[in-house]
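All the exercises in this workshop are built on plain-text protein records. A record pairs a protein's sequence with a compact description of its fold. Backbone structure tokens are a discrete shorthand for how the chain folds in space. Once this layout is familiar, the rest of the handout is easier to follow. As an example, a complete record with its sequence and its structure tokens follows.
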Amino acid sequence: MSTDRRPYLYEQHVALGAKIVPFGGWEMPLHYEGGTLSEHMACRTDAVVFDVSHLGTVRARGPEIFDTLQRTLTNDLAKIAPGRAQYTHLLNEEGGVEDDIIVWWVGPDEFDVMPNASNTSRVVAAIPGVDVTAERCVLAVQGPQARAKVAAVDPRLATVPRFAVQVLDLWGTEVRVAGTGYTGEDGIEIAVPNEAAPDLLARLVAAGITPAGLGSRDTLRLEAALPLHGHELSPTITPLEARLNWVVGWSKPAFRGRDALIAQRASGVTRLLTGLVAEGRQPLREGATVSHGGVELGTLTSGNFSPVLQRGIGLGLLGGELSEGTSVTVTLRGRDVPAVITPLPFVRKAK
């Protein structure tokens, strides 16, 4: 019997036809009856809803919490204000990324810190907060029609701006809504108490929003060149190597890993996150070797088939001077696949 944790909405996912798979200690929907490709294209052209309740929520409160987060996380909260969200990193002293995080600044002295599923304990150890992951579900509505369709559920949901955070009373229930997501498309994420989550999911589906699983969530984030912790980010990969310099509040006097990043910035990085597009439909895969002119440049951190481009695509931490358009060879299980260095993201969000 599986020891993985089931999300609160597990029975609803099964009723909607989900294929359930283990993921990060959870049993999560991989896809529904339409399949990953259909869900991917629905997000690029219409609207989908993901259950991302496996992600963590650490609720941090108090008059000192702003200063604590400033000393702990890389980005500069002074750039935003209450009612806004910010992408940031938790580093180790060597500058490696222990986790990448979205911070929801809910009120003057209240933050919801949103780590990756398997890294919640790292965040709880780093900041004085309470893990409330088990108390709520998080539903992410994404796609160019996300706001139009979610307006049929409640018009206020559609008006939460990008990277804004609002607390709403929805049918007598407090929900927290942020204009964030992980697909490259517009949308919102809704944190709702468990007991109200089945009704909210049913209303979203009834509004014509397609349920989507982890399969399309991964292909969507890859097309958008959004990093995945454990792949493009890890305790041995720094923000600079991942081309995420903008996540670092360089003017802050102190935060964990700052000295290591300053030293790396001064000396220069020897590898950078780089995008590749295959010349054909062959999916590129994590761990594949990338070479140019017989010289090995590095390996892929992520790879798959792009439903939009109809080509294999991949991200890799590569060394060497690689200009856009450079031809490289990706070696997959002994098979050489021609590919080209390409600008990121692979696919930009719909207008």
Summary: The mean pLDDT is 96. The first helix runs from residue 10 to 15.
